[in-house]
Amino acid sequence: MLLLMGGVAVLVVLVLAVLKNPKADGDETAARKVIHVSGVYSVLRKSPREDLAALRPTEEEIKKYLAGVSEDVNGVPLKVSDRTALLRHWKAQTEMNLRGIESGDKGGAVFYYYDYLKECPVCGSFIAKGNFVTREEIYKYPQIVPPFHLGCACVLAAHHGSEKMVRETALAGMVPFFEGDTPPPLPEWTAVLSLSAAAGVKK
């Protein structure tokens, strides 16, 4: 009888321990949520890398598309070498922007702003130099990370000042890229701009 009562007591203790265990399912879910939070005060921010890749065309899709394009948006003829350069540029620009965001996150960047390496007639009517987006907006809408089209010269740079400071001083003409829950329309990736034409080199 004493043995049976002792066994019951041990069982009750084990049940209580499980109920109070900080690694219970609810807490594991909370831990996973921390990883995916991307606000300024997050312990760990999630890179937009995977989410962006899911939204962008694959390398094979880009190659197939370019194979059927004979000239860019300005009517500049495209050679085989131009198509190869455009694909290489797309990949390099994507990686550069993602690394810039990841590096900015580690450095405590509060928000990111758009800039242009050179004039980009395709993006110019969509995004102004100095438009900025918050880290939370990048997390929610990874499609706002450049490049936006083939031959795109738009980049996203980290800014370490406060959003309040920018709003008060209008630093470099910075204004929010969008306000509300939905980003504005962006250029179609299928718009092609010759890299030599974008650089001002006549062919």
Could you please describe the fold and organization of this structure?
By secondary structure, this protein is mainly alpha-helical. It folds into two domains: 2-35; 49-198, no CATH class. 45% of the residues lie in helices and 7% in strands. The chain contains eight helices and three strands; from the N terminus they run H-H-H-H-H-E-E-H-E-H-H. Strands 2-1-3 form a three-stranded antiparallel β-sheet. Helix 4 runs antiparallel to helix 5.
For the secondary structure, the number of strands is 3
Which structural class fits the helix and strand makeup? mainly alpha
Radius of gyration: 25 Å
Q: Level of helix content?
A: 40-55%
Choose one word for the global shape. Answer: globular
Which series of helices and strands comes N to C? HHHHHEEHEHH
What's the pLDDT, averaged over the residues? 78
**Largest β sheet strand count, sense and barrel closure:** 3 strands, antiparallel
Alpha plus pi helix count: 8
Distance between the termini: 97 Å
Indicate how many domains the architecture comprises: 2
Brief sketch in words of this structure:
45% of the residues lie in helices and 7% in strands. It has 203 residues and is mainly α.
Helix-strand layout with pairing:
Blueprint: H1 2-20, H2 25-36, H3 49-55, H4 59-67, H5 80-106, E1 111-116, E2 132-134, H6 135-140, E3 154-159, H7 163-169, H8 195-198
Antiparallel strand pairs: 1-2, 1-3
